[in-house]
Write a structure and sequence with these properties.
Elements lengths: L10 H34 L1 H39 L1
Helix pairs in contact: 1-2
């Protein structure tokens, strides 16, 4: 009879997964704002378009920070695992 192994996710992996999901949500929101800015740009004027563009850029910058942090945590875990070998 085979025993089932239970796999538990390490806290670092779940943290990087959460950061990745958060970054994806921010990118989606930024894309929505840019699309909205294009649609409203001709109707509302350049000021509305610029405001949405700045907000989208801020969201993308935050997403970039989240992804960089997730990559750093992942590479740290890999290095730590390799040292144990």
């Amino acid at each position: 009879m085979a025993t089932k192994r239970t796999t538990t996710r390490s806290k670092k992996k779940s943290d990087s997964d959460a950061l990745s999901r958060s970054a994806l949500k921010l990118i989606d929101e930024a894309a929505f704002l840019l699309k909205k800015g294009v649609q409203l740009g001709t109707k509302q004027g350049a000021s509305v378009h610029q405001g949405l563009k700045k907000k989208a850029l801020s969201l993308v910058s935050t997403a970039t920070k989240h992804l960089n942090e997730a990559i750093e945590k992942g590479s740290h875990s890999i290095r730590k695992g390799l040292r144990k070998l």
